[in-house]
Each structure stands twice: as structure tokens, then as C-alpha cells.
Write a structure and sequence with these properties.
Blueprint: H1 2-16, H2 25-43, H3 46-74, H4 106-109, H5 112-121, E1 123-127, E2 132-134, E3 142-148, E4 151-157, E5 160-167, E6 172-173, H6 176-179, E7 187-190, E8 194-200, H7 201-210, H8 212-226, E9 238-250, H9 260-280, E10 289-292, E11 296-301, H10 307-311, H11 314-328, E12 337-349, E13 352-354, H12 356-366, H13 368-377, E14 381-386, H14 387-394, E15 407-413, E16 416-425
Parallel strand pairs: 12-14
Antiparallel strand pairs: 1-8, 2-7, 3-6, 3-8, 4-5, 4-7, 9-11, 9-12, 10-11, 12-13, 14-16, 15-16
């Protein structure tokens, strides 16, 4: 941030002047050494030389102390010419200027003068990916304004993590600290590198006290979050556009080696691992339309969300999570997952979603060729992508995607016959539970 660079330059300037007074070591050292030599030459006694040497040591100690004091003072310098201009701060404008519900973000709702007043009380900070902004149960002592990047808000439930929300550019984190100092109610983790402004709770409260309009903006955000839906959204009836359609199926779900308790455990594990993987792509699985299919799930991702987010880095995280699960699992609780992704028109009816694209996706995940390859390789994850998804998302190879790992496969199920692309993760090399 520009503020940090200004402070660093100020510290360097102060350090460059440290110890430049009467006790500058560059002056005291040669002068004292000269006095020792002159004292010995003129007095001719060892005691004169020793006295001069002790004088030298005392001057040197004073010089070092003076330099240390100047260095400590340099660390307390602050900007004196006023707050930096908003235009000089990188990415100060949010990546989106409205929230999903149509409301403005906190930052976007402020006027230029209000932003200047906030910046004057704040300090810039960059959080690296997976760095914690706020810790659940920790002391709420500051408010954070996200300038760029995404954060994940989650709480711990036993040994599991439950994602509460995602916060992006322009939004506040830890705003409750400005209203009343208390323990943090959730952990906030950076999903990517995040540029932010950090404001002490007292300074932020003083800003609210002096600006009723900023307080009103904050209260509106707090209210919006209180009524924020925490379950899957209610999709409107009718056409929903070209949505991303993901269907999963647990291999061998009805196997006689599994009990009903095992099946319940495996199904819960699938949803947990999928939620974790979707979170890696800054998507909240609980906010997406889902239908439980008994041995798998149907997930509809709105047309407004890029299909790329459903692929990268979601798939890499899902494959890794499945490997971790299966290394510890017995045969009855092992989770081999087949998943298919397609894009097409979806309609919402009174009893659920429908459309030819959903049928095609179902055929892809059930294709005998896919099941045969899973049986041959013992793969943890078999991911099938339609031609459209492969051409538009896989081929450009974003992020962790490797097109070379996909092979062409024929899908022949009932009246459906088409080509798709198959990628397998895990397999014979996995460590079996003992």
C-alpha cells in the first residue's frame, strides 16, 4: 500500500540521520583516538593513555545509545501531509459495486470525503492466501475493509468447518467490533491475496460518531447480513438460462459391504468434501440449488456464475479431499465419486428443475464406459466433461487444469449417444486402511 511505502521512506530518512548530532560516532571515534595518541606523546605515561582509552569507550557508548534512540524514534513516524488520495491506493474500488441482493457494498456507498476520513484512520495491509484475518473466539479489536480479493467466513462445528459466507471487494469484516467489543463469532480466511484497510475499533467508532451517514450505511449492512439467507436459494419458476449442471454419483453405494449407517456416513462425507472444494472456488455450496439423488447430488450453478469456477480450483481440491478421506477409510466407508459437468438451459417447475441438459449430464455420469474405467483404475474421482465444457473451460487450461489428463470417451446410455471427456484421479497407488 502507498501508506506503507511512505512510512518506510520516512523510516529510512530518519535512520539516515540517526546519530548525526554532537555524539556522531564518525566524529567521536577519530577524535578520541587522536586524544589518546596525543596524551601518550605529550605526557609520556601509560596512565594518560589508559585515561584516553576509557574516554574513548565512554564516548562510543554514548554514540551507540544516541543512534539507538534515533532508530526507535524513526519507527514512530506518521504521515504528516494528510491521508493519501484514494486514487493512489491500488484497487480501492470494489471488483463489484453491488451485492448479490442488489445492495451497494459498504465502500461503494461512501462518499469521497468519507473514504478519505476512513483512510486517515486506517493502515493498509496485504493478507496472503489462507492467512487468517479474524480468528473465531479471538478479541474483536479492529474492523477490516476489503479492497480486493475474496475471503471465506466459517465456523467450527466439532471437528468440521461450516462455511457461513464469502466476502469480497468493498465489504466489511469484523464490523461488530465497532459496535461493541467482544469475541469474534467466526474465522475469516483469505481465499486469495487480499488487499485491505485495517482500522482499530475505537478509531472506527469515532468515525461513526462523527458521521451519522456512515453509521447508517454500516447499520444497513448489519441488517442485510442478519436477513441474509443461509440455505439454498429459492429459484424462480420458469427458464433459468444456460446453467452449469453438476451431477455426482457414489460408486458402489448399494454394495452389500455397506450398512445403512455406512451409506449415511459416506453421503454426509460427500457433501462435506464437496462443500470444502466449492469453497476453494469462492462458491458456497449451501447457497446453490441442490437435489439429493439418494446416492449422489444434482447441483445447479446459476448462469451468472462462470463455469470455470466449478472446474478450477474446485476439482483439484475435491480430488485431494477424496484422497485424504480414502487413505483413512475402510472398504465400507470408502468414497469413489463419479461427477459430470455440462452447461445448458434449465427450467424450474413446481416440483423441481428439468431440462434436456440435466438428462444429458445424468447419462454422462452413468455411462458404462466411465464405470468400466473406474473399475479398472480404482480411481477416487472420475470427472466427465461435455464437449462444450472441455472446449470452453478445460482446453484454455486455467489454474490447476491440465487438458492432457483428459481422454475421449463414448457415452451410450439408452437413447443417448455422444462424446465426452474423462479425467481420473487417484487409483491403485492409494494407501489402504489397515
Amino acid at each position: 500500500m502507498s501508506t506503507n511505502r511512505w512510512v518506510a521512506r520516512a523510516r529510512r530518512r530518519a535512520a539516515s540521520h540517526a546519530g548525526t548530532g554532537a555524539m556522531d560516532a564518525r566524529v567521536t571515534v577519530p577524535v578520541t583516538l587522536l586524544s589518546v595518541a596525543l596524551g601518550y606523546a605529550l605526557g609520556g605515561s601509560v596512565s594518560a593513555a589508559i585515561t584516553g582509552f576509557l574516554t574513548f569507550l565512554s564516548c562510543l557508548a554514548v554514540s551507540v545509545t544516541n543512534a539507538l534512540v534515533q532508530y526507535l524514534r524513526s519507527g514512530t513516524l506518521h504521515e504528516t501531509s494528510g491521508p493519501p488520495q484514494v486514487a493512489t491506493l491500488p484497487a480501492v474500488m470494489p471488483a463489484r459495486d453491488v451485492l448479490p441482493d442488489g445492495g451497494e457494498t459498504f465502500w461503494d456507498a461512501l462518499t469521497a470525503d468519507e473514504r478519505h476520513a476512513l483512510i486517515a484512520r486506517a493502515r493498509g495491509h496485504v493478507y496472503r492466501k489462507e492467512e487468517v484475518l479474524c480468528q473465531e473466539g479471538g478479541r474483536a479489536g479492529e474492523v477490516i475493509v476489503i479492497l480486493s480479493g475474496w475471503t471465506r467466513v466459517w465456523v467450527r462445528e466439532g471437528a468440521e468447518q461450516r462455511i457461513v459466507a464469502f466476502r469480497g471487494a468493498g465489504e466489511l469484516v469484523g464490523e461488530r467490533a465497532a459496535l461493541t467489543v467482544r469475541d469474534r463469532s467466526a474465522t475469516v480466511t483469505a481465499e486469495s491475496d487480499v488487499q485491505a484497510l485495517r482500522i482499530g475499533a475505537r478509531d472506527f467508532a469515532a468515525l461513526l460518531e462523527g458521521s451519522p451517514r456512515v453509521r447508517a450505511v454500516l447499520e444497513q449492512q448489519v441488517y442485510r447480513r442478519q436477513i441474509e439467507p443461509h440455505g439454498p436459494p429459492e429459484l424462480p419458476l420458469g427458464a433459468l438460462g444456460n446453467c452449469s449442471i453438476l451431477i455426482t454419483d457414489i460408486t458402489g453405494f448399494s454394495s452389500p459391504v455397506r450398512t445403512d449407517a455406512d451409506r449415511g456416513y459416506v453421503l454426509d462425507a460427500m457433501y462435506d468434501l464437496m462443500g470444502e472444494a466449492f469453497g476453494a472456488s469462492a462458491l458456497d455450496l449451501s447457497r446453490l440449488y441442490q437435489e439429493d439423488r439418494g446416492d449422489g447430488a444434482l447441483v445447479i450453478v446459476p448462469a451468472t456464475t462462470p463455469t470455470e469456477a466449478v472446474v478450477d480450483p474446485m476439482l483439484a481440491h475435491l480430488a485431494a479431499a477424496l484422497r485424504r478421506h480414502n487413505r483413512r477409510a475402510a472398504d465400507a466407508t470408502r468414497l469413489q465419486l463419479r461427477a459430470a459437468l455440462h452447461v445448458g438451459p434449465v427450467r424450474r417447475g413446481p416440483k423441481g428443475v428439468a431440462g434436456g441438459a440435466i438428462i444429458t449430464t445424468r447419462r454422462m455420469v452413468d455411462a458404462p464406459a466411465v464405470k468400466r474405467r473406474v473399475a479398472e483404475t480404482d480411481a477416487d474421482l472420475a470427472f466427465v466433461a461435455s464437449d462444450f465444457v472441455f472446449d470452453t473451460v478445460i482446453t484454455p487450461a486455467p489454474g490447476l487444469v491440465d487438458p492432457a489428463r483428459y481422454t475421449r470417451v463414448r457415452v451410450r446410455v439408452k437413447e443417448t449417444s455422444l462424446w465426452a471427456w474423462l479425467m481420473l484421479e487417484g487409483g491403485k497407488s492409494r494407501l489402504r486402511a489397515v
